[in-house]
Amino acid sequence: MRQRVVGFWVGSYRHFEWKTANKTTSRRERGPFILFNNPSAVSATLTFLTVAMSSMLELAVAALQSLGAVAFVVAAGWVYALYGYFPLSMQRDLARLVVQLLAPCLLLVSIAHTVSWESFHLWWPIPVLFCALTLASFIFAVVLSFLFRIPRSRSHFIASAAMMSNTNSLPVALMHSLARDPGSRAVLNPKASDADEVARRGIAFVLFFSLFSNILRWTICYQLLAKCPGDEEHAAVQEHEGDAQVTDLIAKQEEVFPGDAVIAEIPDADPQVHATRLRRRSQIFSISADVDSFAATGSAHTASPTERTPLILPNPVPGPQLIDSPTESVPDIPPRSRLRALGTRLYDLMNAPLYAALLALIIGLIPPVKSLFFGPDHGNTGPLEEIVTDPLYSLGEASVPIIILTLGGQLGSMGKVEHVDTAAEGKDVALVILVKMILTPAVGLLMILGMKPFVPLVQDPTFAMAMLLLAACPTALNLMNISQAHRNHETVTARLLFWSYLLSVPILTAWVVADLIILERYWTV
Fold first, then answer.
1. Residue 207: C-alpha distances to residues 76, 225, 296 (Å)
2. Dihedral sign, CA of 170, 88, 212, 152?
3. pLDDT surpasses 70 at 83
């Protein structure tokens, strides 16, 4: 219907353009008045606008329904946590269950079902887009920090927060919800009759993207959030309301945030073991002496942990020692010891979801093994599909509502943290939200549109929507865990996370509606 209307409208316009070229009309009939002097052209134009507005309204309703389903569960977790029915101990237990069991099941089934030798080499745009979006966020953060004359410590915080995107809880839930909605599914994959097929493919793209994000946040972002030796430390502390001095506030915040509920590393039972592993993980691309010194002396705190004990107990380093440490000579280490240390740090970087992703690649890239779990084709079931694959997918699906509920619980717990806001914190929060949720998604949309004619994978609407969702999501909750590890930027992090996820409802709604309209206009035939 829409194509016939557009064709008639274009044909009518060309007919009047020919008449104008031959000067058979008056001056008033030419130019902008030409359409209004012909009833058929006016009728075709109005019909075209009506169909376009109706299509946009349908996509907007589909996006609002998908986001509304996610927002309802988030609100439930927020209210229950705010009134004390969803305590922190329960949030941690659920987060640990998701990390150790449910998320690996979802990751294993989604990637193994989607990947193959024919398609795996087509997935190269995922790391390329990840690097491009990360670089764009970093450049925006640096430029805005320079324009607003923000000190180095705070500019590092803005850059790190802008690069650390929520690549797990929100995009997984949104992709799952969009696949369930008939209107959105018609745009993402018009030929798919099964919502699970669309959801698995979209979630596989999201989780594969999250593997690179997980490495980034525990390496580069971890180093950026450390205190800057050359910066005016006292001014930065005052501007961020004395992060290292208000001990009661810090203790409250450290009890609040279990971390991003899919790839986050749940703290070990022993805070010292967790602190040591955390720093080894961050040192994969760093040999900074001041960080290494902590890993060697992390056992200074030997007191028994209590309910008020922080999750991460860094060994305080005096100011002069911190400033002088980068210039100290590092002793020579035998190559074998360096390889052993690197292997230990890589081991600390691994977790259950990463192991599941590697196993999924092995299963998906070996056709005989894949046929055991998923069958040789869509019409036949594999020997292990009903016994292993279906239960694993059921467990993985259970992770989606638990992730959203835990996210709401974390936001509700943030609401209990009281601190005095400052103008510096407000500026930092505003800049991060501007970069992370406005500028970077715009760059991602332009990149997707530019790559579409040349990259086969980008021509898949499901892939395009997954990448656009990842570009528009707010900052990862792991930012609080890393801030706690450094005893730096903790109060501004709490404020940033609260406002980011509060504002993500209208901002993400606008982006999802715009993305669906663009996909429906340029991707579907």
1. 25, 25, 34
2. positive
3. yes
